[in-house]
Predict the 3D structure of the following.
Amino acid sequence: MLKKLFRHYDYSILVVMLLLIALGLLMVYSAGSVWATLILKNGSPSYFFVRQSIWLVPAMIAGIIGLTVPYYKYRKFVKFLLLMSFLLLVFLEFAGMTVNNAQSWLRAGSVNLQPSEVAKVTLIFYLAYVLSNKQKSISNFMTSVVPPLIVVLVFCGMIASQPDLGTATIIFAISVVMFLCSGLRFRHLVLLFSSGAVLLYLFIPKLIKGYQTGRFTAAYDPFSVANTTGRQLINSYIAIASGGLIGKGLGRSIEKTGFLPEPQTDFIISIVGEELGLLGILFIILCIAYLVFRGFVTAIRCKDVFGSLLAIGISSMLAIQTFVNLGAATGLLPVTGVTLPFISYGGTSLVVMVFSICVLINISAYVNMGRSSGKAEGERENVKAYY
């Protein structure tokens, strides 16, 4: 069985993912070296690089699981995973660690876990499971759409209350894409968007804190608050602009020397632009775009609804998170603290992304096996029976 999988993996996805991981480690070392030595004062420029490298171990283990476990078997564990994610978010309310005004992390020794990242991928599996089971009644909005929508809104509300509006927004956007691709009727889509707009109008103002309101000013008029909240975006502009087409060279960034706060995290693309230039930024965007493209190709070719929706959810997560991160670094969107997949410093994000892309490769292998054998890989039972 594994030999057949190995022969039918889409290795281009795996190679591109590994390229992004390698580049991410390199940029985490370069971007975080000055911050680690001068700001954290731990005396080691490789502090963030070492910690990110350690996270590669669980990421690779998660990747191996994603590659080797048949994707349809996750259906059995969806409810359990959903419950565990919910309990982690509840536990976070009582024992969470606050960093940068957000109570989003659980600490276990020297390890920080971000439950919202786990919840993000769990909800993708949950929606793929529920919407694939309700295909025969998908036209019934109340029975097929409202129950999973309530689950999504509960999770989004819990994450937004940390407050982590960036991740909550990404989860809701992924959910909308999956609902759109599940076969809903047009009038139900209108009702879905209308309900979302009403909820945003009613609840978002209550969740947004004072400092978060200032992020909108910092994003769209940063020079009016240049000495406070606008400083980060202005220095991001300077970093990207000064890098030009080919950059100043690896390790030669000026902005990372204290001008751009925590450059190894959500604003790492600014350091990429300064050191590797526009070509470096385009390389990352093209690599991520390729993963998204191959993901949607896999979703289109997969006749198993669960596998197709799972591929759509994973591809959407990668695309939307990248858009939100780059939007914040360029002033198109308010700063949210969302990481750039595979590039930014962040262990939980790395593990989740590696696992998700490896599950996508697993789905593509079953699709390729079905295509190469001339058989339609439709129902899950047919896939299991043939392989």
About this structure: The chain has 14 helices and three strands. Residues 2-386 form one domain.
